[in-house]
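[[Sequence with tokens]]
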Amino acid sequence: MPDAVYVKNAFARIADRYVMANHVMSGGMDIWWRKRVAWKIHSWNARKMLDVASGTGDLALEIQDACPSLSILATDFCAEMLAHASARGLPHTMVADALNLPFIDADFDVVTVAFGLRNMADYPAALGEMARVLEPGGRLVVLDFSLPQGWLRAPYRWYLHHVLPKIAGYLTQQKDAYEYLGASIEQFPQGEAMCQLMRENGFSHADVEQLTCGVVSLYVATK
């Protein structure tokens, strides 16, 4: 599991260039991935959403545009990242640890976490907390990196460990933060393993959708 202190400090160091680096390294595909989540949530007619590990607010802002009537609260344990989310137009933000969310039970009907669960120190505990604050029948949406299958797997892993850290290091001047990225993706439960973990920690049903040849996975679980 990731070290929480290292992760928090790493994100604080890259906060100012985080959005730009994501767009460059994904070739702009990160925008489409978040739009896919926003379109899905728009179809649910949700009323109150919590975006956990919101960072600079990219996903919450995309959902805010797609669902203007939805009440969205963005949280993150890194104040430096969350300051950018506020400056970019998110009216409701709060510094909070995903492993100890300061909310009553069943307070939200949607919880989202994009590229954040993978960085948490305890996946089962984080999933349990997100299940706790969801109302019965509420949905958890997890968007995160995964490893593609088939012929693309080997070249993608080479890019992940040898090319991406150099590009990110040049863009952010924090190469070590992106060397950690590759290792975290390798260790993160993926596909059915993640769905099973969700089912074991507060959710009755979980499905996965692979995006961009499996480079990213979109999970939806129901409490």
